[in-house]
Amino acid sequence: MKQSTAIQGASGTSSLKLMQPGELVNRMRETMDAVARRAFEIFETNGRRLGHDWDNWFQAEGEVLHPVHLQISETDGSLSVQAEVPGFTEKDLRVSVEPRRLTIVGKRETAEERKTGKTIYSERCSNQIFRSADLPVEVDAASDTVKAVYDQGVLTITLPKLAAGKTQKTKVEPKRS
What is the DSSP code string of 18-69? Predict the structure, then answer.
């Protein structure tokens, strides 16, 4: 069972971003589609040369996705995860916490117009991040003390460790066919 958490800005304002279970799958599908479209554009730009599929794919990933560097530190009672997400705001980001996994997704779009003489140039850009990380210990994903704070391009997530001997109950709802 995935838990979502509010991401607070440095000023203390909270912007709750719920991540429903199906939303994560949809985000992954959208991201893969964007990378595939860009890889095909690169393929066409390079004269439709065969045998460079992986090169085109990796170049497309580098252009579409931005790396999210994580630093995980552990104390006696909690884990602290710092994620570098420059250019994004707390409104652009969503966090999902599971007992052994943390997922951060984000999407932002920008539009820019430039005027040169009588010509107006318009450019739109979309940047996405998707980072899923295995946690070194099991955390209490359902706890009210899970916190996410965004400050100047760094997202800090505090996750309480699961108490020794305690197990989390995962509710699985049957799917109708």
Answer: ---HHHHHHHHHHHHHHHHHHHHHHHHHTTS-TT-HHHHHHHHHHHHB----
